[in-house]
Amino acid sequence: MKTYLDCIPCFFKQALEAARTAGASTKTQKKILDELAKILPKISLTSSPPEIGRVIYALVSEITGKNDPYLKEKKRSNKLALGIYDKLARKIASAGDKLLFAVELAIAGNIIDYGVKNSLNVDAELVKILDKEEKIIKKESKTIFDYAGFKQVLRHAKNILYLADNAGEVVFDRILIEQIKSMDKDKQIVYAVKEKPVINDALRQDAVVCGIKKIARIVSSGSGAPGTVLSLCSKKFLSMYRKADMVISKGQGNFEALSNAKRSVFFLFMAKCPVIAKDVGCKVGDIILCYHGSKK
Amino acid sequence: MKTYLDCIPCFFKQALEAARTAGASTKTQKKILDELAKILPKISLTSSPPEIGRVIYALVSEITGKNDPYLKEKKRSNKLALGIYDKLARKIASAGDKLLFAVELAIAGNIIDYGVKNSLNVDAELVKILDKEEKIIKKESKTIFDYAGFKQVLRHAKNILYLADNAGEVVFDRILIEQIKSMDKDKQIVYAVKEKPVINDALRQDAVVCGIKKIARIVSSGSGAPGTVLSLCSKKFLSMYRKADMVISKGQGNFEALSNAKRSVFFLFMAKCPVIAKDVGCKVGDIILCYHGSKK
User: Does residue A260 sit in the same domain as residue A126?
Assistant: First the structure.
């Protein structure tokens, strides 16, 4: 996805939030916004938002000297999600269509990220998710939801590359991966995290803490962009990306980075801003399961 | 009110909206944002938002060559509000506390401005206001509402300076001014509009079209800032400002410009953004009637 002009005010907002999370003084916060302003005229709108996001968060780290401002928040999210893992697993066990329920949960887990960025009461939201019956996501929010396509490609996929989104949310990914493995234990799943800290995106340690290690091989994309920007990924990762029978991409950042990808990718995410909702053709808050590219 | 760092992303958003309203191409829109980015490091946060707003809207006019991008919108707002004038007047006539109702209506009229900036269905909102009973504004939205103080100062004021906010809203101001005059026809009211086009702020022609001429003297503040920034106002206006027995200031822009004023001012506005809500100590959407400064 290209960057829209409406993303520009949001870049300043994100920089300010990151600066504050890094504990920067008001003076330093202003300095960060001023530096971003200097970069802005050089930014090409043909870059995807995560490419620009990478520059912004690197700027915040450089100026504040804080390598991982969201570390505390990520640990909190992991703990929170792990605390409800048993409940989630029981829900799956009693569900009619277990795979569908796991897919919906994996997308619902995206709410943690939304909470981090919008001061939402995530605990309360998660309780709501858990208290609901099997249909955790309202039908009207599923405007683009190609579950049939997802199931069909999944059935024949032996090697699956799963692109992680945020810390905490990893536990919800684990539920989906466990469900996939329970349907066919021979499926090989690679779980790709970011190479370097960027916002609350999952790193290797988050995947390990959230229990991914037992069910999938954890790899790094080789990049610290908040989305899988292929031009920034490692050769090793790119090889896996090309060879995988199926790519499952979680979150808005990965969608923004890969929506024009040449290979087929399944995107699972919640549309969190008006720009992406317009680009996709849905409403803010809708959950999306969509398939891009030609089937391999 | 000083400018907060949170205002900075919003400045870019406002510039983008104004550029689009002026019919600028995507390339020109980007140019405007780039130029704003160049100005940003020079902006002092001790300036009030309307001082910076003036620079932004002048930039948009300069680059697009459109002197009054919101002209059509202002005409539409005037027409819309004039179309319900009779209904508003009848509502006042049957109200218990006519002055209170007129004050509430004057603040409610601020919704027109909000609609212009947030693509709200203003017509529907106005119908809602009109369909409600006497209490048009919910009690819980009136967190800061010093009606007793307003009445007391008004009683003794012979010369009143009324600072206009936006086109359309002027009709609601007219209702309040008519009510004040009906209580004491000897009160002299001066209605101050902006000198030059800026966003949808009321100009002399808006005041004339909306029928202010019959009940008040229309003057210009001498400035094109979207708020009464005293350092930019004309000497003639400043003299009236200093001599007035009572100043009634409409809208958020005038509050931002005058909240630290040395003389007493009554502010009537709707808190339209989180920054101002935090500054004032209320919620977004609350209506405010507050008194600043020592009584004259």
Answer: yes
Co-location of B203 and B246 in the same domain? yes
Determine, yes or no, domain membership for B2. Answer: no
Residue A121: which CATH number? 3.40.50.10880
* Chain A contact residues (CB < 8 Å to B): 5-6, 8-10, 12-13, 16, 26, 29-30, 33-34, 37-38, 40-41, 45
Predicted pLDDT at A59: 96
Query: What is residue A141's DSSP assignment?
Result: G
Q: Among A44-53, A246-255, B103-112, B154-163, where is mean pLDDT lowest?
A: B103-112
Mean pLDDT value of segment A121-148: 68
Of B6, B16, B26, which is closest to A16 when you measure between CB atoms? Answer: B6
What are phi and psi for residue B144, nearest 5 degrees? -125, 105
Half-sphere exposure of A130 (CA within 13 A, CB side): 16
In a domain, B1, yes or no: no
Query: What's the structural domain count of chain B?
Result: 2
- At A138-181, the pLDDT tens digits run 666 777 889 999 999 999 999 999 999 999 999 999 999 999 99
Same domain for B239 and B281? yes
Q: For residue A9, list chain B residues with Cβ-Cβ distance below 8 A.
A: 9-10, 12-13, 16
- Identify which of A43, A160, A157, A178 has the alpha carbon closest to the alpha carbon of residue A101: A178
ipTM value of the model?
A: 0.88
Query: Domain range spanning residue B118?
Result: 71-292
DSSP run (H or E) holding A163? strand A159-163
Two structure tokens written together for B120: 């709200």
- Give the integer Cα–Cα distance in Å for A62 and B249: 45
Average pLDDT of the residues of chain B: 90
Whether residues A49 and A91 share a domain: the answer is no
Could you report the per-residue pLDDT of A94-109, keeping only the tens digit for each?
Answer: 999 999 999 999 998 8
Q: Which residue do the tokens 């009848």 mark?
A: B90
A1 is a domain residue: no
* Phi, psi angle pair for A67, to nearest 5°: -75, -30
Provide the pLDDT confidence category of residue A295 given band limits of 50, 70 and 90.
Answer: very low
